[in-house]
Amino acid sequence: MEAQLPINSEGKPIQCKAAVCRDSGEPLVIEDVVVAPPMSGEARIRIICSSLCHSDLTFWKAKGPLGSFPRILGHEAVGVVESVGEDVSEVKKGDMVIPVFMAECLECVDCKSKKSNLCSNVPFRMSGFMPRHESSRFTDLSGQTIHHFLFVSSFSQYTVVDVVHLTKISDPSSLPPNRACLLSCGVSTGVGAAWKTAEVEAGSTVAIFGLGSIGLAVAEGARLCGAAKIIGVDLNPQKFEIGKKFGLTDFVNPGECGDKPVSQVIKEMTDGGADYCFECVGMASLVHEAYASCRKGWGKTIVVGVDQLGSNLTFSSGEVLTSGKCIMGSLFGGLKPKSHIPILLKRYIDKELQLDEFVTHEMELEDINRAFDLLQAGQCLRCVIWMDKKL
């Protein structure tokens, strides 16, 4: 794809269109914003397209300490580098990049280790500002500061992202942008949770609680790992037919289990419990049910869903001691963005990893509120928003 960048814009503010969230739960407003030049360690990106993730929906409704408004949401995207700040050599003007909310600095103990994807130099946190300089690159036309979101803010035609949050696409001609953006968060998270966090083995049994995009991506990851039985747990029976595309072999509807808890049903289906259970909704009660559904001795429960702030889990100390099972968190699927996204890109190009099947809708920036409506109603998996294109 040929990069269409403004002439002589480097070092100058850029005025462009963005979908601004002015207050919690209010419709996004398409307005002109000013995007400042990148500072040291940063790059300014022209966003080509951005897909809508459920986390955008969650923080769109957020109040209290998580509700920093006005803000520009969006964190699943692909774009082209327009300019870079000082001390940036990893990317240059014209490079196609995938911004990711997780950092990989390539220098700290965690980034150098195979055991963690949690960068120590630029740790994950909730902030409305850039990670190094604690300031915003967005203002509206009256000069009011607009907050960033997850260090990406891709619902803007231009954004500024720290280089530790950017993954360069080495061969952009082989990858359509409306598929590349999916690897910025959701699909990578689900596939990675099965591949890297759980390390699902060939011939193993998997149970997935919640069959939204993340849960279906976990199924895709389990399929790629060679799991023999992949059980989907969801209240919507239509999800089973959708899930078959991604490798689901069995389905459990909690509303049709009678007096049996879901964990008992899964234990009966798997001769004692699933080897790997994934909670993909963000509900403490489902984490407990997933843990109960795991096989004793070696079962792993992977927490992928984002629960409400302050939600707690409570396990019996005796059960943890005697069951031999473990519970693990999986932020961004345990993936290191710069190291592992290129692997997923190649697997898509090689027709191993499915991405096309996740995209159910595509629309223009002006229609972004309709995309939010579709996601809230459960009528889409991924909706791709084209930032400067008429469809």
Automatic annotation (TrEMBL):
It catalyses: a primary alcohol + NAD(+) = an aldehyde + NADH + H(+); a secondary alcohol + NAD(+) = a ketone + NADH + H(+). Residues 41-170 form the Alcohol dehydrogenase-like N-terminal domain. This is alcohol dehydrogenase. Belongs to the zinc-containing alcohol dehydrogenase family. Class-III subfamily. Keywords: Metal-binding, NAD, Oxidoreductase, Zinc. It holds the Pfam family ADH_zinc_N. The keyword Glycosyltransferase does not apply. The lineage of its organism: Eukaryota, Viridiplantae, Streptophyta, Embryophyta, Tracheophyta. Its EC number is 1.1.1.1. One of its GO terms (molecular function) is zinc ion binding.
